[in-house]
Amino acid sequence: MSDKFASPDRREDILLEDEVREPRRFRVLLHNDDYTTMEFVIAILTEVFRKTTREATAIMLSVHEQGVGECGVYTAEVAETKVAIVHARARKQGFPLRCSMEEV
């Protein structure tokens, strides 16, 4: 006899409370250095992070004046990918631009 139709309190082998959580979110940050040009930072922000020129300029100024600027908040995989893209493009152009991620 199958207990397919058994009442929930009699089916102890089934987990009835699946916990659904939002994915962890990560803030992606650009860090100031003395060598990377402002134009390159704006290009990264518009091409990689899809910011408008106005948004990119504001973030670039934050990086320049405060030492760090937030590019956006993403899931872990997306944040890791964006950090890797920034580092690859910066190295290709000879810039030491540093990009990091931190959990929100």
From TrEMBL:
One of its GO terms (molecular function) is peptidase activity. The keyword Protease applies. Pfam families: ClpS. Keywords: Hydrolase, Protease. The keyword Protease applies. GO terms for biological process: protein catabolic process; proteolysis. SUPFAM superfamilies: ClpS-like (SSF54736). InterPro entries: ClpS (IPR022935), ClpS_core (IPR003769), Ribosomal_bL12_C/ClpS-like (IPR014719). Coiled coil: none annotated. Residues 22-100 form the Adaptor protein ClpS core domain. It comes from the Bacteria. Belongs to the ClpS family. Binds to the N-terminal domain of the chaperone ClpA. Involved in the modulation of the specificity of the ClpAP-mediated ATP-dependent protein degradation. This is ATP-dependent Clp protease adapter protein ClpS. It comes from Desulfovibrio psychrotolerans. The gene is clpS.
